[in-house]
Amino acid sequence: MRPEDVPPAAHLGVLLARVAEAFAGATSRASLHAALERIVVTDLQADGFALYGVDVGAQRGHLEHQWGVVLTSPSRIGSNFWDSFLGDAVRELTPRFIEDVEAFAREGRPLARHLLENNVHSAALLPLIIEGRVQGMLTLRYLDRRTFDAPTQSILSGIATQCALALRNADVRDELERRAERLTALARAQQRLTQLSREDSLPGGIAEAVQLVVPAARCEVFIRRLDSLERVVCLEHGHMTSADFAPLADVALVEATARAGVARLASHLQDGVEVAVGTTELCAPVRDGNRTAGVIRLLAPRHQAFDSHDFELIAILARHAGTAVETARLFSLQDLQRQRAEGAAEVARVALHARQLDEGASELLHVLDRFVPSIGKAIGVARARDGMIEYVAASGTLDGLRGHRPASLLALHELSPNGHAVECTDLAPLAPVSLQAGLADEWAFVLPLIARDRTLGVLIASAHRTGPLSRHHRITLERLSASLALAIDALLLDEEERLARDREQLLATALTTINHPIFILDRVGVRYANPAAAREYGWSQNELMDMRFEELVVSEGARGAPDDDPTIARDTNGASESPPAAGAHPTPPNPTVIEQRPRASHDVHRRRDGSEFPAAVAISPLTSQDGGLLGRVLSVRNVSQERQLEEQMRHTEKMVAVGELVAGVAHEINNPLTGISAFAQLLLEETLTDDQRESVALIKKETDRAKGVIHDLLLFARNTERAAGPVDINDALGQVVRLRAYPLRNGGVDVQLALDPSAPRVSGDAQKLQQVLLNIIGNAEYAMRDRPHRVLTLTTQGHGDTVSITATDTGKGMPEEVRRRIFEPFFTTKPNGVGTGLGLSVSYGIVRAHGGTVSVESVPDVGTTVTIVLPALSA
């Protein structure tokens, strides 16, 4: 403003009012700068201006805004601000008006020469003062020389005062807006924290929320693990950096904050680890209830130092983060409980539907993988009687353990003597010796599976050494261990029941296939009878099981017990009971008494049709696992065939003895008879009277007859070699019938032949076989001598590899006691002088020598049938 243009004093108020109005419309520093530009050009007619920010404490000033004549090196002004006339004005709190800059330059004052270099010749230095405090500096620049009289100085001073007020108001508005923005950011951050429901995502979410409210050069989140603090998140200028590799500054303030539970703000006065001088550090505790769950730390350089508002916001945010930690913990606990419930339900489902232990254990591993992923798992079960663990299911890196056992039975007990879960750094004790060399170098979580106070098995979950299972996963496995143990227990019980059913089925099959009767008795009666019993006795199995066993016994024979006198049986109290006296009726056993020791009995049993048979009964007690008596098991064996064999054996032995006796006697008698027969023949050649000749002839006849008997005896006694050759049975039988035709015809016997023309030949001695047939026909003829109807039927029949010859007569037959003895030597029913009793004995020996059999069936007053069966001659 030129001196001549200075407005009169009357216009001072108008000008100030217009300036005040312009500043009042400025709502921010940017709009204030624009208002200043208009005022400087229109009202003050300056060539330029500059607005400086002033830090009295630091004795520095910095260029905030300039317009019009611009200094070419504003940084020089900032560095020389306090030592120049600008600093003088600030220190003196008084405006300075420089009409001649060149004069100041000659005095060597800082910045004066710099102003001249930019063609500035006059300047007004106006401190912006409010309530005695400098808010800044406004400088007006003039290219020509100006004179500042009192009115002008008053106007400029007033404008400076209004500018200071406008700057303060703009700062207040800016601060309010900044606070509003930060509070909005705080609300958003709090909302974001509220949405965090997972513990693993909580540290990162807290750091990002802090950056929304107070952006810092570095933001770190520490969480408490056991007794120490661990940095888990590090943000560098808003970007996530690995907490493991980011440099870690001194944590003394972090630890102090965690101990005290109070936010702290500090400025580093000296260099430290990753901290420069002047760095400000803000730490706020994250509280979960009454404990410090973690710490938020912010680091900022000096020029971005935190203020009290930052401190308050971070403290608020830390408290909200504590609430988020508690909420996340509750959510995590709820989620963990849900997972455990689902896991327990899945485990129960597997135990319910699995058919076999190995299959069920493998499905259990799949269930566990859904809730606790790991690189390897194995389930071992103590299924053997020796208590050794066997791995029945395995997956991942532990799959090789399947089907193997640990090297030592004591391995698990040594790892976990109290039955609690343990962390294992060496897998060797858990593996067989053959696999230990190839085991991976892994960390493992070993969890004994205990149910009903008994260790049923073990669960192993392996992981890399650098990343073992999290605490969350370990707790999940521990909480599921009870369900797993119950599932394994159920699977083991199912397996035992299946094995028991298999054993029962095997036993039932064995009892069914045994071809002699088996009875199981309890104190009431028959509990079980096998099919062989039904076949033997004629009652059905159900009918037998409705009866008492004593109903099947006709009479009881001798009984015996191991290591005891066989004539004494023991009752349940160990007392002896003597056998019944001879002729006394046997007393049926008391059905309520069950023998405690095995014994044997030989009884006579009755079938449903009334027939009887001798039976050998083996009786064994049936006891429970605790030794209690449940019943008895009876094994019945029909010994009829054995009795017959025994009788045949005795008969054979008797025949052998008789044969040996006969052979000796025959030799002794045959020699004298030969002499008598020879001398009788010599006497017959002499001249004798008729009476003498008749007597000698009788001697000769009887002697020859005796020799014939001796010959038959020798044939019976000797095992002579037969003249083997093919024999046609039909021809042999026809010859015998023709030889006996005359006596048969005189005896009135009607002979009927039924010969099988296709019957094969037999190998043997034809003469001896004819002797057998002659003997049988002669006996039949004698048996029919007094019968009104005399019919003899002779039949031959081929049966593949045998030939049968049957002779059936209509004689008087014979009773059973006679039939049993007909093959005994010298046994005969004929009167003395008619038979020797050796015919059938000799015939029996001839047939047996030919490899055949002789059987006789006879019914008194009906007749007798003799059947001979001989082996056919092979083609």
From TrEMBL:
Keyword Nucleotide-binding: yes
Catalytic function, reaction form: ATP + protein L-histidine = ADP + protein N-phospho-L-histidine
Record keyword Nuclease present: no
UniProt-listed Enzyme Commission number(s): 2.7.13.3
PAS domain ranges (all copies): 503-546
Pfam families according to UniProt: GAF_2, HATPase_c, HisKA, PAS_9
GO MF term (any one): phosphorelay sensor kinase activity
Root EC class: transferase
Keyword list, A-Z: ATP-binding, Kinase, Nucleotide-binding, Phosphoprotein, Transferase, Two-component regulatory system
Domain annotation PAC: ranges: 598-651
Region spans: Disordered: 556-612
PROSITE patterns (alphabetical): HIS_KIN (PS50109), PAC (PS50113), PAS (PS50112)
Boundaries of every Histidine kinase domain copy: 664-874
Highest taxon in the source lineage: Bacteria
Protein name per Swiss-Prot or TrEMBL: histidine kinase
